[in-house]
Amino acid sequence: MNKTTFLYTIYQDGVEHWQLSFQDSASPISEQLVFFHDYIMFILTVILVVVSWLILKSLINRHYYKFLVEGTVIEIVWTTIPAVILIFIAFPSLQILYTMDEVIDPALTIKAVGHQWYWSYEYSDYEAEPLEFDSYMVPTSDLNDGDLRLLEVDNRIVVPIHTHVRVMVTGADVIHSFTVPSLGVKADAVPGRLNQVSFFLKRPGVFYGQCSEICGSEHSFMPIVVEGVSLDKFVHWISSKLEENE
């Protein structure tokens, strides 16, 4: 079992058959999004139970029905309660929204460009000549044991853990979408426009994503793979990549 497979068996960082839950969070933003989802699901469950009980009660007891269709009290109740519920939903939603839009001085900036149908990346923080490479999906016939079909790429995005990373996203031809669920990031890659997402990796691992905007016949064959490593390994990877390009 290779290291990637071992990490994947511990954490759910990629899609699985018949998956109902989210992938395991690897960034604070992703953790907040999952918590907010669970919070909303709890509220929805309570609403569903109460409304179902009222409907069932009115069907069984015909005399009970008249208390639900007319009267000042019931009008006030079913107007006030939804308003209060929406307030409890809006505040945490706005908090997460503004947190995701907050720009923190990044230690590393990566430019991601969507093409039909692959991604290209550029590291330009450390050298006069930027590090550029393309990332294509690995065909099924070339997969190794433990690799994930339709999700593996020949060149991964390698980033250091415990570091603020910013990704500048754009498109070269049509609209694509840069999405990595475990990191809680999703941004449209629009030609002629730069969007940005930021994340902070809390742990090492390999995190899988895909283009989430229908961009043509090969839309489902342009995955995204982010590998989180220690700072020492990241420096070694950058050095080896720059030497290869010389």
UniProtKB/TrEMBL annotation:
Signal peptide: none
GO cellular component: mitochondrial inner membrane
Pfam (any one): COX2
GO molecular function: copper ion binding; cytochrome-c oxidase activity; oxidoreductase activity
Cofactor: Cu cation
All residue ranges annotated as the Cytochrome oxidase subunit II copper A binding domain in the record: 105-240
Transmembrane segment boundaries: 39-56, 68-91
Compartmental location: Mitochondrion inner membrane
SUPFAM superfamilies tied to this protein: Cupredoxins (SSF49503), Cytochrome c oxidase subunit II-like, transmembrane region (SSF81464)
CDD domains for this protein: CcO_II_C
Keyword field contains Protease: no
UniProt catalytic activity: 4 Fe(II)-[cytochrome c] + O2 + 8 H(+)(in) = 4 Fe(III)-[cytochrome c] + 2 H2O + 4 H(+)(out)
Span of domain Cytochrome oxidase subunit II transmembrane region profile: 14-104
Alphabetical UniProt keywords: Copper, Electron transport, Magnesium, Membrane, Metal-binding, Mitochondrion, Mitochondrion inner membrane, Oxidoreductase, Respiratory chain, Translocase, Transmembrane, Transmembrane helix, Transport
Positions in coiled-coil regions: none
Cofactor note: Binds a copper A center.
Topology of this chain in the membrane: Multi-pass membrane protein
InterPro entries: CcO_II, CcO_II-like_C, CcO_II_C, Copper_CuA, Cupredoxin, Cyt_c_oxidase_su2, Cyt_c_oxidase_su2_TM_dom, Cyt_c_oxidase_su2_TM_sf
Biological processes, Gene Ontology terms: ATP synthesis coupled electron transport
Biological function: Component of the cytochrome c oxidase, the last enzyme in the mitochondrial electron transport chain which drives oxidative phosphorylation. The respiratory chain contains 3 multisubunit complexes succinate dehydrogenase (complex II, CII), ubiquinol-cytochrome c oxidoreductase (cytochrome b-c1 complex, complex III, CIII) and cytochrome c oxidase (complex IV, CIV), that cooperate to transfer electrons derived from NADH and succinate to molecular oxygen, creating an electrochemical gradient over the inner membrane that drives transmembrane transport and the ATP synthase.
PANTHER family given in the database record: CYTOCHROME C OXIDASE SUBUNIT 2 (PTHR22888:SF9), CYTOCHROME C OXIDASE, SUBUNIT II (PTHR22888)
Family named by the database record: Belongs to the cytochrome c oxidase subunit 2 family.
Protein's UniProt name: Cytochrome c oxidase subunit 2
Organism: Cubaia aphrodite
Encoding gene (name): cox2
